[in-house]
């Protein structure tokens, strides 16, 4: 009995301590267009939740949707999480946002919020072909079934032809308000905040950890801007050009290499740059190099290299699926093309206008050898100990037009500018050419 008392003495405080340990709640946000950047954000957030051993994950949502492929990947990530994942629709969960919400274990909505309208549209905003609608219907149906929600209603958020008595008539798409979503089991409750969600679930002691991108990820996101991409392309072109102009300096090539890394890595990490697109870019650059160094001129290699380089730069910036641009918004495609062509033409413009000024600047001359051995400055390759121009002598041989002359009792090789001079004639030196003198008849 005494032993049991001692065990109870030590275990009871530990049990009490365990009971008062706060529940770890991680809150993440989806409040923008669903695209590769959102996909990466969700992946990083869920990884953070796993590392911090969060007990509950809450997604605060306000989105009109986005790219279907990225939404499906986000759904798969959420479905694989073992801990409870709840969503708080703080305004809208349309299209892909509705799909992600249905994948969560519990749905909570604020007053005036909505969920639904999940018809698939292409990059121009028009309804996508039926194969995409069928794919979306299947995902919505299976996701709703897995989480105990009516699959027919989920399908009705996509297909306007479905009829559900008392809920949906033909020709319309389901979009639920908060009260409608509660009535048809697509929302647990109407709430005002994340704290109210926790209160409704009897979570009184908790720690809220709001996930935010790290400084590194913010830098990566910064370089995804098409304007920044255009500047990086300009630096790449300028760096390569100035390195070719002043080989051995190293700084221009280093700048071009860093710019290329800053251009490719953010798009690759966010799932935009595919391996084949990066390979195509390097093949294009290699063809341009072949045109410059191996096959001078402007032929097939140069044209092919420039075309492949420009196309791959554009493809890297947009979320195409092997040249399928159905889900690429038209404005994104235009921004990517503008960034690529703007960077290329801007680079060429800088080369023509700023190239000469840069090489003449004092800063550039400190790191590059700019002096030339100009004859006017006294840099002359000659074997004559004194200035010979203007001196007179006689021909030792016939000048036809080259031969030998005697000046000051010394024998020199000489030649005329096409003039024939007989042996023994008087001559005058009019110039020097390395080891020979240039003479004329005096």
Features:
442 residues, alpha/beta, 8-stranded mixed sheet, 5-stranded mixed β-barrel, disordered N terminus
Description:
The protein is of the alpha/beta class and 442 residues long. Helix content is 48%, strand content 17%. It has helices at residues 2-19, 36-51, 68-79, 96-103, 130-146, 151-156, 178-183, 194-200, 215-222, 226-245, 251-269, 275-293, 300-317, 330-360, 362-367, and strands at 23-30, 56-63, 85-94, 106-109, 114-116, 175-177, 189-190, 206-210, 392-395, 402-407, 410-415, 426-433, 436-441. Strand 3, helix 4 and strand 4 form a beta-alpha-beta unit. Helix 2 runs parallel beside helix 3 (68-79), helix 3 runs parallel beside helix 4 (96-103) and helix 12 runs antiparallel to helix 13 (300-317). The model is unreliable at 1-18 (pLDDT under 50).
Number of helices: 15
Our Rg estimate from Cα atoms comes to: 38 Å
Backbone shape: elongated
Spans where pLDDT lies below 50 across 5 or more residues: 1-18
* Termini separation: 137 Å
Order of helices and strands: HEHEHEHEEHHEHEHEHHHHHHHEEEEE
**Most strands sheet:** 8 strands, mixed
Based on secondary structure, the structural category is alpha/beta
């Amino acid at each position: 009995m005494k032993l049991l008392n001692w065990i109870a003495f030590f275990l009871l405080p530990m049990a009490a301590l365990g009971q008062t340990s706060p529940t770890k709640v991680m809150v993440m946000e989806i409040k923008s267009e669903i695209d590769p950047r959102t996909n990466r954000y969700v992946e990083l957030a869920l990884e953070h939740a796993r590392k911090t051993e969060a007990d509950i994950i809450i997604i605060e949502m306000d989105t009109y949707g986005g790219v279907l492929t990225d939404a499906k990947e986000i759904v798969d990530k959420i479905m694989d999480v073992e801990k409870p994942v709840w969503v708080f629709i703080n305004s809208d969960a349309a299209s892909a946002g509705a799909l992600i919400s249905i994948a969560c274990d519990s749905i909570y909505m604020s007053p005036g919020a909505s969920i639904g309208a999940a018809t698939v549209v292409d990059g121009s905003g028009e309804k996508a072909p039926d194969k995409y609608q069928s794919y979306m219907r299947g995902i919505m149906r299976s996701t709703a079934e897995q989480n105990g929600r009516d699959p027919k209603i989920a399908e009705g958020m996509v297909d306007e032809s479905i009829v559900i008595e008392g809920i949906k008539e033909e020709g319309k798409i389901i979009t639920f308000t908060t009260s409608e979503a509660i009535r048809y089991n697509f929302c647990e409750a109407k709430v005002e905040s994340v704290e109210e969600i926790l209160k409704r679930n009897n979570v009184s002691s908790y720690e809220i950890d709001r996930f935010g991108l790290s400084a590194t990820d913010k830098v990566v996101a910064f370089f995804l801007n098409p304007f920044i991409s255009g500047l990086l392309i300009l630096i790449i072109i300028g760096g390569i050009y100035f390195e070719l102009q002043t080989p051995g300096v190293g700084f221009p090539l280093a700048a071009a290499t860093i710019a290329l890394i800053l251009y490719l890595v953010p798009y690759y990490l966010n799932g935009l740059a595919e391996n084949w697109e990066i390979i195509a870019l390097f093949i294009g650059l290699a063809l341009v190099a072949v045109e410059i160094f191996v096959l001078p001129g402007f032929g097939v290699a140069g044209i092919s290299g420039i075309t492949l380089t420009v196309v791959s730069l554009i493809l890297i910036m947009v979320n195409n699926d092997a040249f399928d641009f159905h889900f690429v918004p038209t404005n994104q495609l235009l921004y990517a093309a503008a960034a690529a062509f703007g960077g290329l033409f801007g680079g060429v413009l800088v080369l023509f206008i700023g190239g000469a000024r840069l090489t003449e600047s004092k800063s550039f001359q400190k790191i590059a050898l700019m002096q030339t051995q100009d004859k006017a400055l006294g840099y002359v390759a000659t074997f004559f100990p004194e200035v010979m121009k203007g001196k007179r002598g006689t021909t030792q041989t016939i000048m036809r037009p080259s031969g030998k002359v005697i000046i000051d009792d010394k024998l020199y090789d000489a030649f005329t500018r096409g003039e024939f001079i007989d042996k023994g004639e008087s001559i005058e030196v009019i110039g020097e050419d390395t080891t020979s003198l240039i003479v004329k008849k005096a």
